[in-house]
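Re-running RecBCD enzyme subunit RecD to confirm reproducibility after the cluster update. Everything else is unchanged from the original entry.
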Amino acid sequence: MITTTKPINDLLKEWQEQRLLTSLDRHFALQLAQLHQETAPLFTLICSLVSQYLSSQHTCLPLKQIDTSNPFKEQISQCQININIDELEQTLLQFDAIGTADDAELKPLIIDKGNLYLQRYFSYETQVAEHLNRLSFAPVDSSLNDDTELASASELLNQLFPANEQQYDWQKIATATAMTKKLAVITGGPGTGKTTTVTKLLYLLCSRQEMTIRLVAPTGKAAARLSESIKASKLRLASEMSQIGTADLEKNIAKIPEEAATLHRLLGVIPNSHQFRHHKDNPLRLDLLVIDEASMVDLPMMHKVLSALPEHAKLILLGDQDQLASVEAGAVLADICAGLKQVNKKTKQSRWQMHYSPAQVELLSQLTSTSLAEFASANPKIGDSLCMLMHSHRFQGDAGIGQLATAVNHSNLPRIAEVWQTGYQELCWIEHAIANTAHGSSSQVNSSSANKGLEALLVQTIEQYGVYLAAISQGDVDADKIIDSFNQYRILCAMRAGEYGVEGINQSVTTALAAKGLIHPEQEFYAGRPIIIQSNDYNLGLFNGDIGLILPDSSSQTGRLMAHFIQADGSLLKVLPARLPSHETCYAMTVHKSQGSEFNHVSLVLPIKPSIAQQQLLTKELVYTAITRAKHHFTCLGSQRVFEQASRCLTQRASGLAQRLWRD
Ligand SMILES: Nc1ncnc2c1ncn2[C@@H]1O[C@H](COP(=O)(O)OP(=O)(O)OP(=O)(O)O)[C@@H](O)[C@H]1O
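Result of re-run:
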């Protein structure tokens, strides 16, 4: 059934050496073949392919995507599948280890809707779809059937969202959606008011009933930011509502929780185990769960949270569907929103359009005093639970960042060039090569070679990081303040390896700062060294992605060096450097690791000549995520060609979730 130039086991080894496969992919295939005594090379090949897809964050392997003449996309194909792709499914189902969802006996590999899954991922996906559909279709606040209650809820909404010049106030519609549904998914780009909306929603819910509410985010950094945003948003709400003179204002605002935890903490980590304390048989004790930065939640984690949710509870997902998908398999938030995407066949530009059932249109229209008839759909599916915030309130003053983010998000190359050429003062382009081949803008840094581009970035970096390093050398002992100053600036790299990846840039920055006498990196741990944690240490309370600074310990007489971290609740954690779990220097970090964080000034570094494997990682979601981490300034060290190539390339994550939510 397949033709190969060598025995399949030898080919697997070669593909691993060529990095077309990981060692895990190879061993998974070999072990499964051995376990099921399958000697057919096609079986081993397919197992290694499905594992390779999973390693590349796909949930499944769509059989139609297999290139039968060159399944591993080698330069010269050494393997060919001699079956018509349409017949492949039937052929595979003849293997003992491959079955369908209807089989009485559970097989390790499942084919469903033309996709091949590992059994575990198949059950994650089907159960996540089932949970989300069930939550979305469950009736919630029966009091809204009562006209008086409906009118009073509508009046409260009108107070919270006074009329403005926009035809549709999507924040108000999102709040109403969350009042009417057990599941509400509120998405939107940076500064579109997701936190503002959820704060108003929590106020509304708290003023109507007593509830146990928990706020969570996927990482400690994102949880800390959510907590800060909710606090700020509560203050704004208190000031807005005090002008109206609402009864029990202070009491109800005080009921809105401010503390946010990580998802891991919410679910209860059991050391050295993949299981959590809370699950289907020991559900969480809460009435409402709000998950921020939901785009970072992968399929297995979403499955664990949904399983642990008590039957009566409400779930609100907040996030930006256009950001990079989760580090692990799946793109759950993007799949949930997929049915709202409309692509113009001619221009290829996409836009989002809400879909509500006629009953939901009526209810939302009554609650918001706005006619939503144009969004009625005969088959809205999960659409009744969705609301997208379209208007950014953050980027009005700092127009350049918002304009660039939008142009990249729409993969609109002429517009991207136009934005760079406008010369916005908050945008700075540094060309890798000769300066005048770039987007000729006034804010360019002149450079005549690749090294000159890097030099310009290093000059900027010394200036930016010089502030917190100077504070340390002047004997400032306020760790919170120094960490805050360090967090004003960050270099983000698209890649890990290479001169322009995290490793190379960290090295260059270390050398440049040392040459200026700002740091003394003769020892591994020196004052001012930023570190990022690379694995979880539940005993210390440090998690993958946590960032800290090595600083003299203010409580020690000798000023011994300790790693200082700000935790999700805002408190300071000090750890002896020798006790740190695996970590690395963090003047620069990957865009992936920066999700959920924001910095005053972000510098994105793109590679000069990305390899084919690197090109697959350079996507518009990656560039968009990097730009939207910047609050006031965004610099890019790159080449016009690579920036445009990346902005054109969309992330593709194979998954059947969107189909289960929108078509089944
Ligand atoms: N309807 C509104 N009118 C005016 N300003 C608003 C409105 N909604 C939000 N803002 C302002 O926009 C800013 C961002 O709001 P918010 O933090 O709620 O957005 P977000 O979508 O949660 O942002 P992030 O992407 O940081 O999570 C805040 O300063 C807020 O006061």
